[in-house]
Amino acid sequence: GEAFTPTRAACVMHVHMRVMEPTSARSCAVCGAAFPSRNALFRHLSEACAPGLRREKVPSQTVLLALGYVGSGFHGSSLLSDADEAQRPTVEGAVLAAARGAWPGVPCVLCAAARTEKGVHALETLFALNAKPVFGPLDLAALEARLAALAPAVVLLAPPVVVPKPYDDLGRAA
Question: What's the rounded Cα separation, in Å, for the pair 120 and 123?
Fold first, then answer.
């Protein structure tokens, strides 16, 4: 018969399910082999049952955003927890939601150059949006469209730009 080739989603789900089980239940969902530790299971998956699923290191990219906002509808600029964000939206929460809508599944972290309190407006503030484009290049036009949809509460003052990385992954000057 044909050899079973696990998909990435199947292996991720398999690993997630195994992590949630007691320590004695670490076995490969593909071949059924048992392992004494998660490390041994992962090593087995990467070497035997799913060698094509090795994670390649994806460098992060920093996107610079120049935004102005009317703070009347926001509870400050600093991001709150997910539960609080639903009740009391913040500027960072709105910008992150726009980024996550433009780039589904892409991990994003936002850093603001300044912070404001509830109801305070900002004529211009810079945000650094750090993203790991795991599914291909970042679509800056999609982000720009999502941010434009936030107007008039949040206004994009200039197109988003990817900032060149001054250092390599080991912290050495490029």
Answer: 10
